[in-house]
Amino acid sequence: MSDDIFDLIVVGGGPGGYTAAIRAAQLGMKTACVEKRGALGGTCLNVGCIPSKALLKSSELFEEVQHDMEGRGIMVGSVKLDLGTMLGQKDTTVTSLTQGIEFLLKKNKVTYIKGAGELQGGGRVEVTGEENKVIKGKNILIATGSDVMPLPNVDIDEKQIVSSTGALELPKVPKHMVVIGAGVIGLELGTVWRRLGAEVTVVEFLDRVLPGTDNEVAKTTQRTLKKQGMKFKLGTKVTSAKTAKGGVTLTMEPSKGGSSETLKADVVLVAIGRRPYTEGLGLDDLGVERDKAGRIMVDNSFKSNVDGVYAIGDVIEGPMLAHKAEDEAVVCVEMMAGQKPHINYDTIPGVIYTWPEVATVGKTEEQLKEAGIEYAVGKVPFMANSRARAVGSTDGFAKILADKKTDKVLGVHIIGPDAGTIIHECVIAMEFGASSEDIARTCHAHPTLNEAVKEAALAVAGRTINS
Ligand code: FAD
Ligand code: NAI
C-alpha cells in the first residue's frame, strides 16, 4: 500500500465531487479527488448543463436572426449555419471550464487523481487508469453521479440512436429527429435541433410533457413549443428500433395498449431519464445499501450504512440537478467538520432552458391539492409586463401559490422570458419564509421582467395594478 493517506477521498469530480473536495480542503482536510473521465466537471460540465446551454444559445441566435429582426428594422442577408464552428464554440467553452476546475483544485491544494476509484474497505480506494495506486482515507465520499437510462430494444450507438451525449455533437442537422421522452433533456435538445432546421417529433409515454412540473406550466410549455414547430406524440410507447443505412424505424404503440405503428427518423434521441451510476465502485462487496432505483441510501448527514462512507448528488435520492449536488457537497463536508449547516429541499429551483424558459420552486398546485393544503393563486401573463412587450417575448405567465391562511409562499411557477433568472428572488423569499404580501410590498425596478413576480404576488390578494 502507498503512503497516500487523506482525511477525505472524494470519488467523482462532477459538481458534487469537486465542490466537496474544495470545501473540505478549505476546512483543513487533506483531500483527494478521484476522477476517471480524464477531465473534471462531471456530466454537467462535459456532457450536460454547459454544452447544452452553449448550443441552446447559439441555436436561439440562429433562429432569432432569421425570423425576428425585420420587425425591428434590422435587415439581415441570408443566414447560413456553420455547424462545425457552432460545435467548436461549445467545446471551447467546456474545455476552458473543466481546466478552470483543475486550477481551482490546485489552488485549494486538493490532490487530483486521474483514474477509476474502487472502494476496498477499511478506508482504502484502489485507483486504476491513468494513475494506478491504492490510497487511504478517514472518510470516503461517493459522488459518481448518474448515467443514461437505457430503453429495451432501442440500442444507443451514439450515431443514429443517441443519448444526450451524442445529441450534443451530431455532425449534421438531421432531417427528422425523434426524441423519446418529453422531459427536460428531450425538450431542451429537441429545441436545439429544431431551431437548426430539423423536423422534431417528441414521443412521450405519459399523456403530458414534463411530469412533476406544475400542470398548467407543462401545458403552456407544450403549446408554446408546438407553436414553434415541435411535434408531440403523447401517450405513446416505443417498443423497438431498427437501424439501417437510410435511417431508423421506430415501432410504437399507445401506452394503454392498441395497435402498433412505425415512425422513421434520421436520428433518434433517447431521453427517458437517468439512473444513479455506481458501476465498479465495489459497493456490493462492502455492503453499501441502495434503494430499488439503485441510489445509495444515506441519512441526513449523507452517511451510508457503512462507517466512513458518504454519498451526495445524482447518486442519491432527489432531483438530478447540478446545484442540488453542489449544495449537498458543502453541507456534507461541513457536517464532517463538525459544523451545523442546512439544506432546504423545499427551495431548490428547477429551470428548463427552452424559450420561453420554465422555472419553478416549491410545491405545485397538484402537490398542494394532494396534501390537502388550502392555497391562494396569484397569476399574471407576461403580456401585461411592459418589459416583456418591449423585448417582444410575451408568451407565458408567473404564478405564485400562497397558503390561504398564513399567506406564506409555497410555490412559484414561471414560464416566460428569462424565467430562470427571475425565479431567484422567489427562491430567496421562500428561503426566508416570505408571504406573498412581503413580495408585493418589495420595490421592483421598472421596467423589468421581475415586475411580473410582484404583480403575481399582488394577484394573490386580488389587487393587481397592471393586469
Ligand atoms: P456527475 O456530474 O455525473 O459527476 C460524476 C463524476 O464521477 C463523473 O465525471 C464520472 O466520470 C465520475 N465517476 C463515476 N464513477 C467513478 C469512479 N469509480 N471513479 C472515479 N470517477 C468516477 N443540471 C442542472 O442543474 N442544470 C442543467 O442545465 C442541466 N443540464 C443537463 C443537461 C444534460 C444533457 C444532462 C445529461 C444533465 C444535465 N443536468 C443539469 C444534470 C447535471 O448534469 C447533474 O445533476 C450533475 O452533473 C450531477 O452532479 P454529480 O456531481 O452528482 O455527478
Ligand atoms: P426526465 O425524467 O426529465 O424525463 C424523462 C421523460 O421520459 C418523462 O417525461 C417520462 O415520462 C418519459 N419516458 C420514460 N420512459 C419512456 C418511454 N419508454 N417512452 C417514452 N417516454 C418515456 O429525464 P431526462 O429528460 O432524461 O433528464 C434526466 C435528468 O437530467 C433530469 O432528472 C433532469 O433533472 C436533469 N436535467 C436537468 C436539466 C436542467 O436542469 N435544465 C437539463 C437536462 C437534464
Please describe what this structure looks like.
The longest helix is centred in the N-terminal third of the chain and has 25 residues, at 83-107. It is built from 14 helices and 22 strands. Helices cover 32% and strands 25% of the residues. It is α/β, with parallel strands linked by helices. Helix 1 packs parallel to helix 9. It has three domains: 2-148 and 276-343, FAD/NAD(P)-binding domain; 161-272, 3-Layer(bba) Sandwich (FAD/NAD(P)-binding domain), CATH 3.50.50.60; 347-460, Enolase-like, domain 1, CATH 3.30.390.30. The strands form five sheets. Strands 1, 2, 3, 4, 5, 6 and 17 form a seven-stranded mixed beta sheet that branches. The protein has a five-stranded parallel beta sheet with strand order 8-15-9-10-11. Bound molecules: flavin-adenine dinucleotide and 1,4-dihydronicotinamide adenine dinucleotide. Flavin-adenine dinucleotide binds at residues 11-17, 34-37, 42-44, 48-49, 52, 116-117, 143-146, 164, 185, 277, 280-281, 313-314, 320-323, 325.
